[in-house]
Structure formats: C-alpha cells, structure tokens
Amino acid sequence: MHPEFDVDLLRTFVAVVEAGSFTKAAVSVHRSQAAVSMQIKRLERMLGTTLFARDTRNLSLTRPGNTLLEYARRVIDLHEEAWSAIVRPEVTGRAVLGAPDDYVSSLLSPVLRRFSNLYPHVEIEIVCAQSTALAPMLADNKIDLAFVTRDRKLRGEFVRSEPMVWVGASADTPVLNVSPLPVGLYEPGCVARANTLAALDRARVRYRAAYSSASLSGLVATVDAGLSVIALARCSVPPRLAILGAEQGLPTIEPLDIVVARSAKSDRPTCDYLAAQMVQDLSVRAPAREPREARRIV
Questions:
Q1: Domain boundary assignment for the chain
Q2: What digits encode the pLDDT tens for the residues 217-241?
C-alpha cells in the first residue's frame, strides 16, 4: 500500500520551489531551516527519489521534482478550496491593492495565489508603484490597500521587518575599490534611501550618489554594469547578484518595516480578508542571509 501524501510536506516542498532556497522557504512556512530540510528529506524517502539537485549556489528541481510540483500544487489548491467551501463565507467583490513591484514578485505572489484559491470570486487589481507614490493614492481612495514600507505618511498594520543588504555585481566587483564609492539610490523621500544614506554617514564611508531611480530594475542595471553598489530589501535581491557586508567595509543598514495600510473606503469584506491574508502569511521576521566572501574596501 502506498503511503498517503502529507499536505504539510507538499506545502513545504512548494515553498522551497517558489522561494528558491531552504532559508527563504523556512520564513514562509514558519519553520526553521533545519525543519524544512528534514521535511524535504522525509518526502524524498517516501517517494524513493531525489527532488532537488543541489550545489553550493543553486537549487533546482530534478525531473521527478518537476513532476511532483504540478501535482503538489493541485493537491494544495483542492485542499484549500474544500476547506474554504465549508468554512469560509462566500465573498465576492473587488479590491485594489498597491505595492512596489519587488514586493509583489518576492513576497506577495504566494499570498495572492492562496487568496485566489480561498476566494475565487474576488477580483483583485494590482497597482505597482513605489511606497512614496502609493501614499497619496491611498489618501485619495484610488487604491484600497497598500503593502508598503512604513513611514510617517503610511503607518498601517505592521507585517514584517525586512533587512536591507548591500548588493554588488559580484563578490569582487571592481567598483568596491573606487573612492568615493559609487552608490545607487532609490528616489528622494523614500525610507530605503534615507536609511542607506544614514548608515553611510554614521560609518563615515566616502561615497557619492552616482545613480538615482524609483525603479528596482533601474538600480539593478547600474549594478549589472559594474557601475555602483546599491542597498535593497533582502527579499528584492536578484539571485545573480552578490550580497556584500561588513567584510567589504559596508555598514549595517536599518531594516524596513512593511505594513498593510488601508484607505478610508476599504471597510468591506473583500479588503478585510485580503489584508488578513497578507498579515497571516507574511508576519514573520526573515532570517539573516550570510554575505559571500569579498574583498574589503580600502
């Protein structure tokens, strides 16, 4: 007789695939990295095959892993739909959610997928913009909810504290030896920029604001070209780039507090349930990611 699939094991497996690492998956399933690793090993023993091809930098699915992924998602979806059909009330309507594009892709994708399974009749419109641009839209009721970095204008319900990290094209990118250090920054007025500049000033690092952009892709382009280092929310760091830190003489930066803020007209079930889903799924403190070895700035 074949052993029965444990839905909890399948959830962890899908979380690892979606996060691209055991460490990030541990955050989303509210477990330690060791516990996630043990669950994957248990699933592999149950199936008698290897699901992930591992090396020092990459985590990819084997052929059996790719096959399982499709079925695992279907099993999880059916499980949530069945539970919702019995327990949750029928909710219909529309909600407009605003968030920076990097938060949408790195944090909100699994939340939106789960919410859609639970409330299939709710229409969600997503507005991608920086937190500084979303604040006035929220005040004018142009969006219902905002998943944003907290500042004086956007208080909201606290969800998580996301570390900020330094990012370079590689661990030994030549730009580290340039003085003053060329730094790419987000647009004036945003918390990420203020935190970055405050950290550099406290540490008395010689730098120049070489590039400025309200777009994550714009800043990443300067790093890809080897023209600057930048500071990003850790969840937003593209896998191809290197995380830098104290070993390169770069200072620790204050983390970003992420909140769910609501407009005055968001007092309705569609918005209530969507806000609750974001808080429930993402209200954890992410574990620190170890920087790769790199040379110190001199």
A1: 7-87, 93-161+258-282, 162-256
A2: 999 999 999 999 999 999 899 989 9
